[in-house]
Amino acid sequence: MQTESEQLFEESKKYIPGGVNSPVRAFGSVGRSPIFIKKAKGSRIFDEDGREYIDYVCSWGPGILGHAKETVIEAVKAACDDGLTFGAPTRKELEIAELITAHMPSMEMSRMVNSGTEAVMSAIRAARGFTGRDYIVKFKGCYHGHSDGLLVKAGSGVITQTVANSAGVPEGYAKYTLVAEYNDEESVKQLFNAYKGQIAAIIVEPVAANMGVVPPKAGFLEFLRDITQTDGALLIFDEVITGFRLAPGGAQEYFHIKPDLTTLGKIVGGGMPVGTYGGRREIMQCVAPLGEVYQAGTLSGNPIAMTAGIETLKLLDAHPEVYAKLEGKTAGLAQAAREAFGDRVCVNQIGSLMSIFFTDKQVVDMDTAMTSDTKQYAAFFRYMLDHGINLAPSQFEAMFISDAHTEEDIRKTIDVIKEFAHR
Ligand code: PMP
User: Fold this and answer.
1) What ipTM does this complex have?
2) Is the pTM of the predicted complex or chain greater than 0.95?
């Protein structure tokens, strides 16, 4: 007997490539048919077969307060009554721009877009426009969305697709993307020596979370700040995951580093499709209509999306204790996983982000992440799912902990991890 999810997947495959609207959702690397989700509340998601799961995907990051937070939902419902989109400026766009600058003072000006991909693509165009340079440096295993020039040695779903670069990206375009090793200063120095004065920007996930979670080594982000400043290149922090998650002011607050440009997504949209990029005023003044870097959007700054974002940021502001609680819960979960598996795994954790890598190596970059036994991860994933716990369907993604995860949820999760580890 097929489950509802299996039936829906079969039908979806007829109309949607791979049956999904984003590749990792197909569960390709964990040997299962995906669960189709009907609804979600707090720390739980519910599938079409009526099964309930403690959710550690949290829609890949937006759900820092848990699913369907009442205050946010009520505000969104009220906003809908006033109209879904106007294509004209609104008070709410000003309000969220002010909130962003208040949290991340490096973002003196910002622009709303509709996804993290768009935010990064636009930030890079602004960096190129401002510096008059073409090359960018990214890190192997970091993911910055699916725009052409950034699908070079990218993380996230690109890893499990086993393609280093996407088909359909002209070589002449990808050649402007230079790739360095995460946490490896020497690899960055080499590029800056070889391309002196030609690099527009370094883009980095200040905490890498798309090859699994890999925190920066002490001094690495400071080094990136220094080398860009010396060369006249810009430093772009891709805080699509870390923004409002590591700290109210994101990784730049957590590590006390001021990037030139920042990209945001996920939490800033409170569950709606939103991305943002922004930074130093003189750079953002290059963007149209002020400057010659063109960037626009029919639905950018959409009033419903802005409402969800504003309410989420305001709730986080009203409950600053959330961050310490998240850190405590996540550290507890990480420690329990270390104790359960011993040196068979490497558990990386920072703030409310963590990954359990099935390797006995320290995971500090893409190469060490790739030493993980992905078959073990797949078995772990299936065991957890069968016992009511939803993890990311790939070794190379983060676990997201939300404010809605109770101590009881964490205890139950630890029990299932222990059962799996002892089998
Ligand atoms: N940057 C980072 C660091 C991300 O994690 C992601 C998505 N997971 C993106 C950019 C792209 O965002 P989106 O999927 O909203 O286009």
Assistant:
1) 0.99
2) yes
